[in-house]
Design a protein that fits this description.
Elements (H helix, E strand, L loop, with lengths): L1 E5 L3 H13 L3 E5 L2 H10 L4 E5 L7 H10 L6 E5 L4 H9 L4 E4 L4 H19 L3 E3 L2 E4 L4 E4 L2 E2 L4 H10 L7 E2 H9 L9 H12 L5 E4 L3 E4 L4
Parallel strand pairs: 1-2, 1-3, 3-4, 4-5
Antiparallel strand pairs: 6-7, 7-8, 8-9, 10-12, 11-12
Helix pairs in contact: 2-3, 6-8
The chain binds calcium ion (CA).
Amino acid sequence: MRLLLIEDDVALGEGISQSLGREGYTVDWLQDGSSALHSLLSETFDLVVLDLGLPRMDGLQVLRRLRDSGSNLPVLILTARDATEDRIAGLDAGADDYLIKPFDLAELKARLRALLRRSAGRAQSTIEHAGISLNPGTQQVSYKGEPVALTPKEYQLLHELLSPPGRVMTRDHLMQLLYGWSEEAESNTLEVHIHHLRKKFSTDLIRTIRGVGYLVEERG
Ligand code: CA
């Protein structure tokens, strides 16, 4: 899951991104509203955590512009304790949930899981393909009726390749989905994850499209 965190408080931003990173999220973090809006409109994320008080463009405006673009990306807003009006304006502008600062990181995680379940439920039910059954709500995967244990990155990759099958996914798109802007990714890590998926399912599940990316055939 690729998450965009928009928070100008450095200590809080660091705490949230480290904690969510350990949870398996790919976290990209921006500290002002204007670059956040630019990224939201030009890149693909699964989830947004948006502080309302931001430099260069406030969070409410970012949210309105995002919804105006037709996006229904799940957004959780962060607001100050005494800012009831901000919360109401945020929900009216299309936020899916909110948390009042200061909050417990465990609560943030639980609320993000709930948001992902809801958006998964909206978008699709269990994906069935070539003997694979993938439930986006619970993130459980099975193959020919047997549960398969996947790492968060393997799950994310498989989910993307199966949503829906039959589309060639470029290397760049998949790398960005798995690693965001972080520098941690070695150039061959995508190949390693694909290799593991082929081992866990079937060698011919994922086709390599030379020089472009990867494909799961529509008819598995
Ligand atoms: Ca702030």
